[in-house]
Amino acid sequence: MPAPFSVALQEAYASVPATEVVLDTIEIHAIAPDGAHIFTTPIRIVRDDADLLATLEQDAPRDAGAQVTFLSFVFDLTLQPSQATGVPELELGIDNVTDEIEDALDEAVDARAKLVVIYRAYLASNPTAPQNTPVKLIGTRPVADDATQKITMRCSAADWMNKRVPSEDYTRARFPGLSR
Predict the structure, then answer these.
(1) Residue 108 lies in a domain
(2) How many CB atoms lie under 10 A from the CB of residue 106?
(3) For residue 65, is it left (φ>0), alpha (ψ between -120 and 50) or beta?
(4) Is 2 domain-assigned?
(5) Domain containing residue 99
(6) Residue 174 CB contacts under 8 Å (≥ 6 apart), including other chains
(7) pTM here?
(8) What is the distance between the alpha carbons of residues 47 and 49, in angstroms, rounded to a whole number?
(9) Residue 90 lies in a domain
(10) Which has the closest alpha carbon to 138: 119, 121, 154?
């Protein structure tokens, strides 16, 4: 399994050089129950004061290997308190969202689409590839607060509720021992 962070990103986190800036990015996809993408272009944002032109990994779900623009937004990922039961969750909060983003998320909710949230870290000095293994999360319950222009959404590492159990079909062809 590849290391979750590149050597350059590990060094940046460990030494915190003044010349190196880690740029956190989020990409949001909405996938309809029939597998179609709801958004023409995924929502892509960077936590910075300027837009970021960066190259996606070769196996990205959309625009693989292409240079794309991440729009400048303020966002936070907050780990929720530990619980004895349930799936561990993060809360994604995006501040000062535009009407376009709010309308797109409303459309996704109306279509009962699955929201896929992908976290990537880039180095400002090297936006040619993500410096971490992209982390895919499932977003649920997006809530827009019109007064503060903030959207919050719960994100978890897996879609356990829609996972097929058992995940394999035990047939006589694959498992001859089932026949008597």
Answers:
(1) yes
(2) 12
(3) left
(4) no
(5) 7-14+21-178
(6) none
(7) 0.77
(8) 7
(9) yes
(10) 154
Q: β-pairing, 67-79 with 43-47?
A: parallel
The CA-based angle 125-131-133, given to 5 degrees, is 165
Query: How many structural domains compose the chain?
Result: 1
Tens-digit pLDDT profile for residues 10-57: 776 676 667 788 899 999 999 998 888 989 899 999 999 999 999 999
The tokens of 142 are what?
A: 């997006």
Kindly give the parts of the chain with pLDDT less than 70: 1-5, 9, 12-13, 15-17, 79-88, 158-167
How far CA 81 is from CA of 57, 151, 154, 158, in Å, comes to 32, 20, 13, 18
Q: How many residues does the chain have?
A: 180
Token pair listed for 103: 């309308």
Does some domain include residue 49?
A: yes
